Amino acid sequence: MQLFTELSIVISIAALMALLMRILKQPLVVGHILTGLLVGPFVFGLIHSMETFNLFSEIGIAFLLFTVGLNLSPHIVREFGKVSLITGLGQVIFTSIIGYFICVWLGFTPIASFYMGVALAFSSTIIILKLITDKGDLDTLYAKISIGFLLVQDFIAILLLFGIPLIAPGNSSPLLVMLMFIKGLALVALVFTASHYVMPRLYRYLANSQEMLFLFSVAWGIGVAAIFKSFGFSLESGALLAGVALANLPARHEISSRLTPLRDFFIILFFILLGSQMKLIGAGSVIPAALILSLLVLIGNPLILMIIMASLGYRKKTSLQTGFTVAQISEFSLILIVLGMKFGHLDQRVLSVVTLVGLITIFGSTYLILYSDKIYRWLEPYLGIFERKVPTEHYNKNKAHTVVLFGSNRIGYDFMEKFKEHGYTFLVVDHNPETIEKLRQEGVDAEYGDAGDFDFLEALELNGVELAVSTIPDAETNLLINKAIKAHNPGAVVMVVAHRIKDALAHYDEGVDYVILPHFLGGKYASEIMIKLQKDENELSSIKKAHIDYLQFRVSLGHEHPNQSA
User: Fold this and answer.
1) Quick one: residue 175, left, alpha or beta (phi over 0 = left, psi -120 to 50 = alpha)?
2) How far apart are CA 97 and CA 379, in angstroms?
3) Cβ(122)–Cβ(332) under 8 Å?
4) Dist CA 303 CA 293 (whole Å)
């Protein structure tokens, strides 16, 4: 009962803090970390069952990385492996070197400066994935690259966490390192062998029961994570690989959607626990050093990554958004510092500095990631130096089309079917490389790109466009599309999607021809069906069956109704 009461109090405070964040229009992640500070020993000291909260946070981490893995098919890993390796290694090396010299300049010892420089180089996979998921950008190019180099960072961090104890006095054992490497390869081979030979056959049986499929998915994700942890590896790596192993199953989207509520609950407890473990004792004396190092992480890390991305040929918006994902330090950073203290290499002052840097950068990077589109629009005129004259992330000039569709998922799919039915020559624009590849295989003219990037819109052939439809529910992006289309052809018809009435009215004020409000449109359509069919049971039954078949077909395509935060 004491544990139950403790958990209920913490959750209640988290709910109130989340409500406050919503009123202030701030990211909920910030509220969860503040909740941790309040309930932790720094303020009220309400958390006593640390073992239980640690368990819940580990479950949240496992679910989060498992669902991310479900969206990482093997061909994505092959496609983005090179850029992920280069950016991951490059950013860690440059940040560590720069951080070392800054720490020496601030008066820290060489060994402390080494630890701190390396700690500043690692970014939090958990926090970044949560923010990217909340923003709805998990399928975008910058997100896929970010996930790749975050895994590279985690691998380096794990090597350090294993390596430091091994090189400590009396613990040097090259054989132990070799043994861990062999065990890791064996576990990876075992998981992917099972996914290739066992899962397809097992899936045909499990797919007949949604409950069985859900239960098996939970058991598989947590089970593989537990096996990796028991062999001395991180549960994060196990959970991610478990998701990747199921990424080719037809029901991967359904599995992911069913796990989302569980993931969100447990990951909230992870952020609360993270906030409660922030050690700010003696922080006042280290504030200047913490602020300088925070600037390195918030500004220096993104600049380093943007330079690397530009050298690889990526465009400035992709580079900026990818750069923002490294603007905070990781939980691995704090673990590394604690490990250094354990072996007598560091003192409490170093821990206080790094903890304060963690708090500042987690808060700051949250806003950078969530509002990266708006920030890009402000900075776009000054970012030319971060882009080659001829980027390899190129925008192709397309043949003339009379119709352009921005966004092909969910609502966009119905527009595509209607365009095909009427024989329109149309172009699909989407920011998901997988979607573009699939559409091109189906013979549909499709172009990868971000409709919120003015340079990309200018690169499209818009002179002959007579109808443009945007299913992207971002007000500023839709206004930019309308402006670009009307600049080339003032007589073109532009239709956009909005989820809020005030956005729809703003679109009309800017000259948009028609705004689709899905919720209101759906309600109007449903009410008309009700009046028409309430006395005709046979027709109602026929429409019901057709609707069920249609919904099941859309699920098979991986479509799902989006979660609305407002």
Assistant:
1) alpha
2) 28
3) yes
4) 14
Domain regions of the chain by residue span: 50-386, 403-516
pLDDT of residue 277: 74
At which residue do the structure tokens 């200018």 appear?
458
Q: Tell me whether domains 50-386 and 403-516 share a fold.
A: no
Q: Tell me, which fold does domain 50-386 have in CATH?
A: Na+/H+ antiporter like fold (1.20.1530)
Segment 11-37, tens digit of pLDDT:
999 999 999 988 887 778 778 888 988
Of the CA atoms within 13 Å of residue 217, those in its CB half-sphere come to 31
List the beta bridge partners of residue 428: 405, 446
Strand ranges of the sheet holding 493-497, from the earlier edge strand across to the other edge: 446-448, 426-430, 403-406, 467-470, 493-497, 514-516
Confidence (pLDDT) at 161: 63
Q: Which two tokens stand for residue 188?
A: 């990876």
Q: Which CATH superfamily, name and number, covers 403-516?
A: NAD(P)-binding Rossmann-like Domain (3.40.50.720)
Per the listing, tokens 């380093």 go with 304
How far apart are the C-alpha atoms of 101 and 275, rounded to whole Å?
Answer: 29
Find all residues with CB under 8 Å of 278, minimum gap 6, and list them: 33, 36, 37, 40, 42, 355, 358, 359
Q: Rounded to whole angstroms, what are the CA distances from 372 to 140, 296, 318, 332, 497?
A: 13, 19, 10, 25, 21
